[in-house]
Amino acid sequence: MSFEQVRSRALQYLPAESLGVIDDAYQFAAIAHDGQRRKSGEPYLEHPVAAALILTDLHLDPSAIAAAILHDVPEDCGVPIGEIEKRFGPEVASLVDGVTKLSKVTSLAHDGRNPAKAGEEVVQAENLRKMLIAMAEDIRVVLIKLADRLHNMRTLSALPPERQRAIAQETMEIFAPLAGRLGIYQIKSELEDLAFSYLEPENYREIAQLVAKRRAAGEQYISRVIQKLRRALEEATIKAEVSGRPKHLYSVYRKMRAYEAIGRQFDDIHDLLAVRVLVDTVPDCYHALGVVHTLWHPVPGQFDDYIANPKQSMYQSLHTTVIAEEGRPLEIQIRTHEMHRVAEYGIAAHWRYKEGSRKPDIKFEERVAWLRQLLEWQKEVRGAQEFVDSVKTDLFRDQVFVYTPRGEIKDLPAGATPLDFAYRIHTDLGHRCVGAKVNGRLVPLNTPLKNGDIVEIIAPKSGRGPSRDWLNPNLGYVKTSHAREKIRQWFRRQERADNLERGRELLEKELKRLALHKPLDEIAKLFKYDKVDDFLVAIGIGEVNPGQIAVKIATAEPRPMTLPVSPKRGGAAPSGGVAVLGVGDLVTTLARCCSPVPGDVIVGYITRFRGVTVHRADCPNVRNPAEPERIVRVDWMLGKDQVFPVRVRVDAWDRVGLLSDVTAVIAGEAINMSAVHTESSPDGTATISMKLETSGIEQLSRVLGKLEAIKGVLTVSREAG
Fold this sequence. Notes:
The protein has five domains: 3-198, Orthogonal Bundle (Hypothetical protein af1432), CATH 1.10.3210.10; 202-348, Beta Polymerase, domain 2, CATH 3.30.460.10; 397-491, Ubiquitin-like (UB roll); 494-555, no CATH class; 644-719, ACT domain (Alpha-Beta Plaits, 2-Layer Sandwich), CATH 3.30.70.260.
């Protein structure tokens, strides 16, 4: 990587006289980094030069390129920002300072099993907040950061495996989605593929091999298609560039997993190679589309017009899938050259250097409107981690576009519901919402919205306020952090005594439903609350939802039940403890009387002929044993894909379709039902007793919550085995 490459590419779009600041920055950085080397052994200066080279591909201005070259000088060389401002001016210094402040953003992957990381996560979340706010002030700061991250990912092999995974995880969670949100798909695709290769190396190699096998034959096929399409466009007097477009590996992997979920195979993926058509004007786009559909029959439901309805990143193109040569489906994208530039370079396409002006063009403000919204949201969100969650769910997910009854378009994260839509329109409308119509039909409030839906919210003039059920993630009423925070704010304004009482009711109901017997103060401490009342208020407000309790118990550090162990008659005390599931000196089996599952506190009972049976600690059969020396300590030691039987009882009003609705919920959670018994009562109720095979308390809590939401269900509870 040489500085001459940076100069050469910069001269393709910058006047020669503007390169002075870039040359000066290189000379200054060369002296500052003299003698420093990267982990790979190469001179350190190669890294900032490589970042600058990436920015020349985006056609950024001289100040941004100079700042990229200087971005590690303050932190790694001890040069104060004041010195950089003195030598290079306030604009370059401001950019360098902005990037330097972001350099401490480390892995943001949440590890719920390690409470020791809680404080670190808050710091990381604060750093992410700073980075995103800095974007709104000067987008070039984050473009430099993306270039910095891209080169770090290209050279990641020099770091230890642990660091590789941490950096790759952060790249996949934050930086690749951020590049996508800014519309810079060129960088997004490479970041995803590089992160994928470190996070899932076996899957990466498998996909690479599958794609390589298909691509050789596919390229010959695409070549024939391109020739035929070029001739047709020429005959229609449309000036066009036609080329093939390979799909990057991570997107193939995601599609492959989606296909597997619906029983389809890798061979069913037909857009590993697609065709792209570039024309001069928007009318030419639609004219070319007509030519394509005249040549080949379009596949119904496989057409998207992103020209009339651009994505939030301002991406524009026509996408159509046709049955092309040899009867094979083929995706074709049609766009103008300007749209293609925006698709490749995203927001950077509107910050290209123009002689005599350092301002972005007028479309720039449209593209950062979501950043302005972000600034408003961050003022409302209480905690830094909540802000990170908001960013990940509301900004980095794929978008759906829906309409108000008046035809106004609203964008929401994929999976958003009518309630999310109501809160996006106005907070008060969300609070008063009692129902919704989608495309003229009444639907449940937790119905996922689809592109093109027309949504009408039903709300009386004076509503009773939101329901706490809306905050239960198992019920799926709200998916956006924006709506969730507005609901919590409403409950925070209620009386503390009311929230405390409601929190106690919700907690006791959840513990009873799961048949868990754990002191409230112990549960409160799992959530870092010293006082039980404060914990109960948090539940009442919605800051902690009942479903999280099962997750926290299941992921807490295993703590064996401490019971006195008496010496065996005529022998020594048992050695240590017995690990569950046959790991240890004795065979172990799960007791049928109480059917323990991971997340339960458990004890072992040494039988005379069947090794150790494992019981829940509160099981009546081991609570006061006649021979206490038979009680031993045991831990859960879980293997992959293990399941545990548990009995569940559902009481509901009897009706046609009740059992069908229950089994649909269980199937949706991918849980096996090994036995079921139904019984109707004269009072019009029905009882359904089932034996389910679950992975533990967390999954059990989730499915019980969903069962309770079924129409007509009165109670749902876990039964003794």
